């Protein structure tokens, strides 16, 4: 995936975002770039915004994921999708159309965000689905034929029942396979895939156990976390009790959350699991 360039605007966003949807837009211009849009939305009160802008060569982030961008509020939540439960992504126009390169770059960004926040492919939607606006307009012709193609390409290796992220690093893949095995062992997760790649079922189950792992909780999953934390230098060998989510382990998790800009409460939400699954 292209690197994400952060150009966070002080304007046009609100505090708070409980991410359930990824909402797709196009910019509506004839020809533009991600940088030009990021600069524009950093330049003053525009009464609109999005989290990300994507073009052929770059991805710019303008609003923090944890804040609500002003991108689909025109629907007033009538269809269950709002600024406060979604990430908005704008695809830039290449001259009357969205180029295939921009589409590919966008697909990679969407897959990354799906993995990070546990968003299913069914919740990757159009601005149209939030408000009935004709957006992304450049994907709407012929009864949304290009949008259907976008979703089909997204589903190719990224659907509810199949692969979200193919893990290339052999060591990390082995670690994730052990995590998946332990999820079946400890929580009867009944995962169909335990090969170390990241599937929607893995994310769904991690999301469900995130609040279970509190202080005093005992499981092989906790030992897995402790070993990762020790490997990264957050925990010292002999300072914690194996398999117990004890005070040293809790403090190590909060230190990791602080360093990775996650909520620093020791709760293992998907935002925190994403650090362990991607490193």
TrEMBL record:
It catalyses: Hydrolyzes the link between N-acetylmuramoyl residues and L-amino acid residues in certain cell-wall glycopeptides. It comes from Clostridium kluyveri (strain ATCC 8527 / DSM 555 / NBRC 12016 / NCIMB 10680 / K1). Belongs to the N-acetylmuramoyl-L-alanine amidase 2 family. PANTHER family: N-ACETYLMURAMOYL-L-ALANINE AMIDASE AMID (PTHR30417:SF1). Keywords: Cell wall biogenesis/degradation, Hydrolase. Residues 9-154 form the N-acetylmuramoyl-L-alanine amidase domain. It holds the Pfam family PG_binding_1. GO terms for biological process: cell wall organization; peptidoglycan catabolic process; peptidoglycan turnover. This is N-acetylmuramoyl-L-alanine amidase.
């Amino acid at each position: 995936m292209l690197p994400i360039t952060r150009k966070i605007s002080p304007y046009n966003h609100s505090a708070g975002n409980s991410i359930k949807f990824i909402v797709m837009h196009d910019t509506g211009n004839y020809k533009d770039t991600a940088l030009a849009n990021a600069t524009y939305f950093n330049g003053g009160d525009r009464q609109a915004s999005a989290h990300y802008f994507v073009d052929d060569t770059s991805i710019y982030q303008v609003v923090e994921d944890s804040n609500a961008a002003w991108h689909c509020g025109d629907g007033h939540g009538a269809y269950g999708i709002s600024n406060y439960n979604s990430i908005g992504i704008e695809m830039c126009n290449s001259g009357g159309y969205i180029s295939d390169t921009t589409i590919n770059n966008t697909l990679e960004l969407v897959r990354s965000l799906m993995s990070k926040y546990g968003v299913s492919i069914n919740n990757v939607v159009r601005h149209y689905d939030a408000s009935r606006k004709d957006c992304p307009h450049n994907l709407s012709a012929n009864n949304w034929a290009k949008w259907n193609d976008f979703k089909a390409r997204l589903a190719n290796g990224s659907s509810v029942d199949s692969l979200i992220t193919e893990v290339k690093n052999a060591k990390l893949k082995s670690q994730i396979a052990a995590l998946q095995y332990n999820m079946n062992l400890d929580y009867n997760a009944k995962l169909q895939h335990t090969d170390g790649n990241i599937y929607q079922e893995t994310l769904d189950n991690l999301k469900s156990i995130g609040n279970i792992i509190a202080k005093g909780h005992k499981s092989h999953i906790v030992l897995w976390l402790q070993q990762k934390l020790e490997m990264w230098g957050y925990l010292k060998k002999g300072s914690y009790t194996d398999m117990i989510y004890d005070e040293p382990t809790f403090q190590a998790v909060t230190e990791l959350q602080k360093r990775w800009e996650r909520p620093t409460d020791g709760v293992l939400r998907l935002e925190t699991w994403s650090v362990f699954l991607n490193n």
